[in-house]
Structure formats: C-alpha cells, structure tokens
Amino acid sequence: MASILIDTCVITDLADPNSLWFEWSASTLERLDQYHTFFINPVIYAECSVGFEKIEEVEALFNQLGFATKPIPKEALFLAGKAFLQYKRRQGAKNNVLPDFFIGAHAAVSDYQLMTRDKGRFSTYFPPIKLIMPEPTI
After folding, report:
1. Would you say 132 and 112 are in contact if contact means Cβ atoms under 8 Å apart?
2. Which residues form the domain of 64?
3. What is the value of pTM for the model shown?
C-alpha cells in the first residue's frame, strides 16, 4: 500500500461539510482508500489544532478520519531548512510558510504522495513529490 500525506487544507475541508472543497476532498479520499494509507505529521496536527478549543476535539477528528501521525525524519527537517533558505534568497516575502516546507520535505524524503490544494511551494521546491490535487477548471 502506498502512503499519502494529507495536507492541512484537506483536513480543514473534511472538518467542514459546508466547505467549497469538502466534496472533492471526501470523494478523493474515498477513491484512494482501498490502495493507500493516509496520515499526517506533527506540523499538520499543530496547524489543524488552531481551529479547536480542546485537544480531545482534535483527537476525535483524526480518529474519525483514521489518520495516524508519523514523525518527520531528521533528513526531512534538514531539507525543509534548506528549501526555506532558498525561498528567502528568492525574495520570498511571506513569513508564515515554514510549515509548508516541513510538509513538503517530509513527503519528498519519505517518497510519499501529498494530497493538497496548494501547488505553489510544493511543486517549486519539492518537484519530485507526486501531488494529488483538484483538476484545474477551464
């Protein structure tokens, strides 16, 4: 079974049935479920926890979704730092992007697919990652 890292934006979609992207996120997971395992990492867990008052609520969400949490390997942490440095050298202006580099590096180093709606930094700084994304609309 192949492993897929689930990005924060997808979990946010799944947590809100009224989200514009709920249907895409839910149907994509359902389609992939038979042949893949889904998981998150500590950075994604932390980003998702912002929307909840209690840890029990976050735990309930991930238990309901069936996503395990995998640690980020040191090699991925190192790669994230190097990619972030490259971003800053290219005059990257946003300061809140470091989590994306941890997530992208984790997928790249561990050879995981990444389910996301945020193509930009992942495809630019981690081109080997196979991204699972919505089809572009014409």
Report:
1. no
2. 2-132
3. 0.92
